[in-house]
Records
---
Amino acid sequence: MSQFRKAKFKELETIVDFQILMASETEDMKLDKETLISGVEAVFEDPGKGTYYVATEEEVVIACLLITPEWSEWRNGTVWWIQSVYVVKEHRGKGIFKALYNYIKAMVEGDETLKGIRLYVEKENTKAQAVYEKLGMTAEHYKLYEWLK
């Protein structure tokens, strides 16, 4: 049975490896490992940037995601963004992400200062979109635009 918790710094390399795999699988993108290591370290060093959560089985990390906070003056509270989702291939289709999402959702529901959960998904990643919709998330409010250097 899976367990869910905040990630530990000693799991940094696993998180980095998961992100490299996720970028390759979903966007056919090759991430720079040194930049990624620095980015993941920055999250562990500054909790204001976010928090990694993991799913484990028998102490082995099998999934992770990153929560980043966004202040909403409209709601006078914080919305949690789910980012960097990865589930090890052998564990996909077993409800691991659903359980990890529900773990996060329960924290949001139990804290009056937390107002909701958001995430973004690559346009062609229809499998992930179907999973998110089954969890009760909707894609009807906003369209994401970005400019990235």
---
Amino acid sequence: MGMPITVDIGGASSGELIDTVFGYFEYIDRRFSTYRADSEIAAINRGDVPVADWSGEMMEVLALARQTRDETDGYFDIRKPDGSLDPSGIVKGWAIRNAAGIVQRAGISDFFIEAGGDIQSCGKNARGQDWSVGIRNPFNADEIVKVVYPRRRGVATSGTYVRGQHIYNPRGSGGPIQDIVSLTVIGADVLDADRFATAAFAMGRDGILFIEQTAGLEGYLIDVNGRATPTTGFGALCQP
């Protein structure tokens, strides 16, 4: 998937289960990666595959993308200016959520799955404590500015401090986001956190207002001046 992935699972059969989870991520990469010429999404963008032959997973992800576009007044849009499709802004959270389902169906209730900064956790860690997630200082990679305890919720961060400018405002000028550098969203699960983090970041500074006004979401924004703005319910998630 072009990013580091961490899977932390307890239990005697965890090794085999972890292999299954990584196998699932490899399968998703082969289907959705825009960096692989042999992926399904690459074939679709070349016009090699008729709609009738698109996979069920592809149709599900594209339906979620349309739903998110409608829910965010067009700020989430997987269609690029050249007309091609790039579902990267939603596939990661969707895949992590599905991987969590694989783990849960195996009877595991304590786990932590992270891919490229998007996280789904459940239960307790090896020390018997609630899982915690650190929000990195975008101006100093060695510093954690906030620690949250998601307690079964999903966490996703969109930003420009690792990959550079890769999120653009699909409305107006369509240019890169200049006024914020990091936006962390906590949602009911990692899919909601991921898709709304991408959309809210595309809104720039107004994104935190969107998160504030959307039921079930909390967020933490850091602007280009290093100033942080949390939603009103964010502080409660920082309590161990």
---
Amino acid sequence: MQKIGKYELVRELGRGATSTVYLGNDRFTQRQVAVKVAFPDILKDPQRGRLYTHIFLNEAALIGRLSHPHIVQTYDAVVDDHLCYIVMEYVAGGTLETVCSSDGLLPYERVVEIIFKCTRALDFAFRAGITHRDIKPANILFTGVDPRQGDIKISDFGAAIIGSPERTLVLGIGSPAYMSPQQVRDQALDHQTDIYSLGVVMYQLLTGKLPFQARNSYDLIYQIINAEPRRPSALRSDIPASLDAIVARAMNKKLNKRYANWTEFAHDLAQAFRDRRLSLPADQMADFEKFDTLRSFAFFADFSDVEIWEVVRFSEWSHVSPGAMIIEDGMPGDCFYFLAEGELKVLKNGMILDLLTTGECFGEMAVIGKATPRRGADVVAITDTKLVRVAGSALQSSSQACRMHFYQSFLGVLSERLSSANVRLVTF
């Protein structure tokens, strides 16, 4: 079996203009990896060698910097005159290119979920000082065999701007069909160029067509700068007007009318989705809806996006009807809850102690206390209610950072309850 460095090369996965990507084995960590190997003489190319070196060095610079569930991880790199390769997380699925044709489109709800996850991943990169600069379907991977379900991961940060915004060569880096007006004009770039490019990706995933069709690069650049694309709903009748509006704002040619940041973009996606799925059962909510719900709770204010995605993965979501007993006084307990929607009452010996509303945490003492976990009160649903359940075992198995933030937030909850109790005692 062929080897490069400490990695066994199993088979070729793909080949591009500058490199070959192999499926590899890392025997030290016992995991499969993707190994991108530059063609032997590519860095010595008299015309483009400097650009190719920049691309590989960019990816090498990202080792350990972008640990996010929706970004392909870079593990290792070697860049020198004789050997150049990048070792990355292996993602078994294909790219979104496979669902960009009119005969293989995804449901628009799935498109919204994919784009939402991209906005959060690119916001994470932006906060780390990184602008991708080459967002396109070929650089967004799906993790399973079916692009209609499962997670996605953004790949290929070789063209990224790391640090301060800079100018770029229009023909040197990037894919013209997805470039923003600022990029084709060779202007200084920041995260808003990625917002535009993701808007183009969303347009293509919704319609199966690029927003601008051109005979050559010059015509394409002219249209990007001067023309307005047709609304997605004009090409696909089931697309709601809210998605037309989101695509139009993401792709606005004027920076002051484009989304100013990723949070605005993500918020509009979540709202558009929620408005059309009000009756959806809690256990059928999309992951990004769960993420957006948790992110809105004060309890999770200090959690990173990565930690909230972790909570989404290990939490259980359910619906209960009015009058349902959620927690029973004196019974054993090994989990705690968040109220995602609705209203609950807390009772002791039939007397109401408290009313709980959206975003509140309850039942945590059975998990964080040292004594035998027993419930100290009844909790009953007043209205139709959506609940988020977290098992104690899931909390203990979570990452150290996630667990630390839970305990910090628990302290905040307990402090508020003690303060409220003191006020009631003084009033009484």
